[in-house]
Amino acid sequence: MRNLYAALNNTETLDNENDHIMVQIRLHGTKTQVTINAMIDSGATEDFIDKGFCSKYNIRTTQAKTTREVYLADGELSAMGPITHTAKVPMDIGSHRELATFQVAKLPNHEVILGMPWLKQHSPRIDWGQGKITFESERCTTWCLKESPTVYAIPEDEAREENLKLEFGATRSTKDQRIQVRLLDPQARIPTRGSAKAAGHDLYANEERTIPARGQDVVPTGISITPPKGTYGRLAPRSGIAVKHQIAVNAGVIDSEYTGEVKVVLANMSDQDYQIQKGDRIAQLITEKIVESDGYQVPKLGKTDRGQQGFGSTGTSKAQICEISARAFGKFYRQPDTTTGILKYNKKEGLISLESVNISTELAIKRGKYQKKRKLEEMMPQEYHGYLDVFEEEEKTKLPPHQPGVDLDIKLEEGQGLPVKKIYGLSQDELEELWNYLKQNEERGWIRETYSDRGSPIMLSRRKTESSDYVSTIEHSTTSPRKTGILYP
């Protein structure tokens, strides 16, 4: 097997099968987690992830500042490039967790490659002969590990097979939604759709027929079908001949186990005979999902609001409207056979709607939620009107102006360094909220990307609000500045 892995300025051609091993990793995308076998390759001068793999499993990618071409060892451009995006994604290898950074490329043979940047960063001890990987560097034992520092490699053939099963198994799980069609007559036509998003497939007459006025006839199509699994075929009228010639379709269910010829029962509702020519579009075939369930006997059925009222019984009841207090509303709400709600009038459209009520709505009424909202100026004493912006509910999107005596002064001590603290893992929801916060405030210009090997700690706390707020403060430290944040999801 010939492996080609490209550095951004060079490509390594690996002829030795002993300079790489396969290991199982788990990547945490924005919506799901995926387990895949990655190649640890001492001959790859970058860490790579496949572009299609990122798209398939919702792994967030970021536009690179510059586009870089990928070259083969002979100087020719590689099909893997160009490199236009990078991906930062939480990655687990056994109990080892990190936030990995990959170059996004079109990988021909693998999904993930861990090259020299990853090896240098974590300095794992690798027994290439036994396929044993031990994370024992100071960085890993302090920040990355939870339990055992050792993981074991997977034979490459087995790893490749598992990756293929993951790739094609996920594809097969979406199921083939095509209709199987068999031509019973060489001159018959396969059903077609009039447009890409048409719901039905047009069926074609395979013989001439005359549909008598106020009568019906059966028209053969010369085909048999098998609908996709979990569906049945429904025959429906075509709007053109239905409107112009009053041609309807009767008896329109094709079960998945029926393999005989599809024949269409056309009913002529007009006072004139209608002529069907061979090749005319006569009906639509629509595939619909079904629940394959069995019936069973019960002594009685559950009670419903409608009960045994039959044809024409819905939409005819008269509503009695009267004004009551919130206390009386709570009393009536709990009585059986009583429908309660809140009437809302749309003056523009002239419509009255009834909003159904539950316990939460009742409590909201008692708290005055449905009362007219008062302005902030009406609720605040006059002497505090100069500080109304402090109490506004809207999120601030601009930094306040500099004010002498108000701006926070961070004093740094000469010769002091930054503290080193342990990094703790974040949950998927916390990581997603953090990414949203960073992206939002980077667009505002409040923060910018840095290549420092130090980071700012954050503290996450929950509160019950309708939206997520992030409150950031700068605390004074005698040794160095420290930024803390509180994330309210």
Structural commentary:
The protein has 489 residues and is of the alpha+beta class. It folds into 4 domains: 171 residues, Beta Barrel (Cathepsin D, subunit A, domain 1); 110 residues, Deoxyuridine triphosphatase (dUTPase) (Deoxyuridine 5'-Triphosphate Nucleotidohydrolase, Chain A), CATH 2.70.40; 41 residues, no CATH class; 93 residues, no CATH class. Helices cover 17% and strands 30% of the residues. It has 9 helices and 28 strands. The strands form 9 sheets. A 6-stranded mixed beta barrel has the order 3-4-9-5-8-7. The radius of gyration is 34 Å and the shape is extended. The N terminus and C terminus are likely disordered.
Outline:
By secondary structure, this protein is an alpha+beta fold. 17% of the residues lie in helices and 30% in strands. The protein is built from 9 helices and 28 strands.
Radius of gyration: 34 Å
CATH architecture of the largest domain: Beta Barrel
Task: Give the strand content.
Answer: 25-35%
Q: What is the CATH topology of the largest domain?
A: Cathepsin D, subunit A, domain 1
Characterize the biggest β-sheet: 6 strands, mixed, barrel
* Helix/strand class: alpha+beta
Helix content: 10-25%
Return residue spans where pLDDT drops below 50 for at least 5 consecutive residues. 1-16, 465-489
Annotation, overall tally of beta strands: 28
Biggest sheet, strands in spatial order? 3-4-9-5-8-7
Individual helix count: 9
Name of the CATH superfamily of the largest domain: Acid Proteases
Coarse morphology: extended
How many domains would you count in the coordinates? 4
Distance between the first and last residues' Cα: 49 Å
CATH first level of the largest domain? Mainly Beta
Mean pLDDT: 76
